[in-house]
Specification:
By secondary structure, the protein is of the alpha/beta class. It has eleven helices and seven strands. The site of adenosine-5'-diphosphate (ADP) has 17 residues, from helix 1 and helix 10.
Length: about 250
């Protein structure tokens, strides 16, 4: 089984970037190497990993137009285990076209250097998310336990099916990661139950990710979630377990 994993949802703010980077943080903690591919023109994960998307010379946009990925990927500010294929604003016009399998070919050249390649998607189901799925072995949908977030899951699953059908027979919907789960909320509990009924219990990855101030703080301070000692120990352990799950999935 392959090592390329796409994290997606057409909704913004659900935690795609947070999940991609939390997994990268857990990987680094375990001494594993990951490449984060930032396909969001907003460049959030690029920025959190210590680079300014506006200053990046070679980005995922150039890789989509045939620049070798080895020229564009860089070690992040998080240390040698976490590498990044950065975003740039030049990705924006790419969300309206382009060769859907170019990224797949590019990542195939480097994926065996990493324990996983994690693609962070823009909040849309346009051609960048389609390119991410065409390049991936596994798709993971990130949701919040809210009505609006869950309404979009069907459309994401449809895109996964479409890309599987037209470009990538190896693509597998690996499951759903639930983020921003509040400590006590009847509404969130009901939405969680609704999700497990809709996608099936086994498709929902455990554990779910709690809503915690330190998660937001780590993103804002551009640091790995594991860097906050006892303040982040609970959330860091959640990401450790999700990383272990992802490793099982990618090993098949
Ligand atoms: N579990 C969480 N607890 C608290 N804040 C969170 C959590 N997950 C995400 N956030 C915050 O929510 C915002 C949106 O998250 P982000 O990962 O950027 O979403 P997306 O990539 O889907 O647009 C960010 O400010 C982030 O810090
Ligand atoms: Mg994001």
């Amino acid at each position: 089984m392959g090592r390329v994993v796409t994290v997606l949802n057409q909704k913004g703010g659900v935690g795609k970037t947070t999940v991609a980077l939390g997994l990268a943080s857990a990987a680094a903690q375990a001494g594993h190497r990951v490449l984060v591919v930032d396909l969001d023109p907003q460049g959030s994960s690029t920025w959190v990993l210590g680079l300014d998307p506006a200053m990046v010379e070679l980005s995922a946009a150039e890789v989509l137009s045939r620049t070798p990925v080895t020229k564009a990927m860089l070690p992040s500010a998080w240390g040698g285990e976490v590498w990044v294929l950065p975003s740039s604003p030049r990705l924006l016009p790419r969300d309206h076209g382009g060769n859907p399998t170019r990224l797949r070919d590019a990542l195939a050249e480097v994926s065996d250097q990493f324990h996983a390649v994690i693609i962070d998607c823009p909040p849309s189901l346009g051609s960048l998310s389609a390119a991410a799925l065409a390049a991936a072995d596994h798709a993971v949908i990130v949701v919040e336990p809210s009505a609006l977030s869950l309404r979009g899951v069907g459309a994401v699953a449809d895109l996964v099916d479409e890309v599987w059908d037209s470009h990538n027979p190896d693509l597998e919907l690996a499951g759903v990661i639930v983020n921003k789960v509040p400590a006590v909320s009847g509404e969130a509990d009901r939405r969680y139950d609704e999700l497990t009924r809709t996608v099936g219990k086994r498709a929902v990855w455990q554990p779910v990710i709690p809503q915690r101030v330190v998660v937001n703080q780590a993103i804002g301070e551009r640091r790995p979630i594991h860097a906050y000692g006892s303040r982040s120990a609970e959330v860091a352990e959640v990401f450790d377990r999700l990383w272990a799950k992802l490793r099982r999935v990618t090993k098949g």
